[in-house]
Design goal:
Blueprint (H helix, E strand, L loop, with lengths): L1 E3 H10 L4 E6 L4 E6 L11 H4 E3 L8 H11 L4 H9 L5 H11 L3 H22 L3 E3 L1
Helix pairs in contact: 1-6, 3-6, 4-5
Length: about 130
Amino acid sequence: MKVKLEDIIEAMEFAGMETEYYYDIQNEKVVMLLDGMVDGEDNPEFFEDYIPLPGQYDINEYRLMEEVIYELPAGKNQDVLTGAIQGRGAFRRFKDKLYDLNLQKQWYQYRDEAYEKIARQWCERHKIDLVE
């Protein structure tokens, strides 16, 4: 079995509450399913042919935000971003502050590296070869 790294990462980025992505074992490709298309309890044979990819509940984006903040040098930027992730609306405020502080490139690089690591671990766990 094999899959493109970029296909897994793209699926991880777009996975949400209404969409899930799976690896189709037979066709060796990533497929998207909308919420309600498959019920694993009613359709157990589905999971014989498909492996769920990491989704929004497998990726702790809040923790990633915390980690990137803690990697910054102590000071104003770290303080501003730490305050931004407190309470409701943390994701929106965090991203707004990144742009205000001109740190968006650093965040996206960090996040992309974290997603790649998760994708590689997923492939290793399921014994799927990566095509880069």
